[in-house]
Amino acid sequence: QVQLVESEGGLVQPGGSLRLSCAASGSITSIYAMGWYRQAPGKQRELVAVIPSGGSPNYADSVKGRFTISRDNAKNTVYLQMNSLKPEDTAVYYCNVGARVLFVRSDYWGQGTQVTVSS
Predict the structure, then answer these.
(1) Concatenated DSSP letters for 31-52?
(2) Cα–Cα–Cα angle for 99, 37, 79, nearest 5°?
(3) pLDDT digit string (tens) for 75-89?
């Protein structure tokens, strides 16, 4: 199995920055795409950013130019650098990892971390 451990979110003022991390561990054979989703109260979970194992990252239009996703393959870790945060970025953020354990490929989710943008 694969375990994902996310860093803590927090309370940030509008215009501020925050960096999230998500480390994958366990009996991992391969890791494919790594990404971040978020879910605000009363809304559906939405994709924030995704970075494939090889290739360019993709971002939701709402975060382009403000958020940067990156990964450290040696550490099986994905990061989300969030700058110029807005109140509408307030949500629970979840990391998502596509990984293979032996011959089985599955999607795995982090436990979620709260990010609140407020003055």
Answers:
(1) EEEEEEEEE-TTS--EEEEEE-
(2) 70
(3) 999 999 999 999 999
